[in-house]
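Fill in residues.
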């Protein structure tokens, strides 16, 4: 392969590689954000974190941490009592789910239909990477008509004259 051909191929590959790198960077970022788990330092932060993960049953658009409703205040008090009793955050959430159902959770549950919220984005990203790979592969593969045919014979003198005459006729017919 000649140097100009290699350079042309590299220019053709570069945009596809940039797309793949961008998708990979996005996937790594999502993985880091999804696995980042900070533990609360104090009791107040634990209460805030648990309350922020629960919907207020009265005002559905607010979390228990943000709601001014009396029921939300009672729920925050109950969270504090359960933390003082030594219950874990998961146990506290489970008790509220038992009392109010899955709708009390701000994030979808990781079982049943709620799993779709966690796995669907990953499936979409995997599908996008597959499509990008297939498009890039097709884009880089030249069609047979563009491949140089080393077995093609050069034009004979009579064929060359006929070609020049045809081109001259086309130029005369052009409106100018």
């Amino acid at each position: 392969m000649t140097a100009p051909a290699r350079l042309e191929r590299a220019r053709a590959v570069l945009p596809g590689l940039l797309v793949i790198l961008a998708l990979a960077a996005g996937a790594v970022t999502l993985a880091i954000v999804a696995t980042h788990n900070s533990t609360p330092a104090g009791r107040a932060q634990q209460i805030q974190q648990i309350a922020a993960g629960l919907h207020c049953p009265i005002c559905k658009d607010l979390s228990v941490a943000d709601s001014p409703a009396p029921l939300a205040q009672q729920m925050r008090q109950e969270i504090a009592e359960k933390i003082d009793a030594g219950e874990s955050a998961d146990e506290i959430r489970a008790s509220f789910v038992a009392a109010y159902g899955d709708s009390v959770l701000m994030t979808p549950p990781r079982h049943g239909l709620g799993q779709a919220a966690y796995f669907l984005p990953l499936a979409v990203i995997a599908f996008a990477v597959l499509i990008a790979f297939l498009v890039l592969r097709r884009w880089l593969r030249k069609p047979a008509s563009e491949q140089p045919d080393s077995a093609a014979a050069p034009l004979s003198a009579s064929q060359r004259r006929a070609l020049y005459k045809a081109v001259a006729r086309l130029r005369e017919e052009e409106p100018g």
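The first helix runs from residue 3 to 35.
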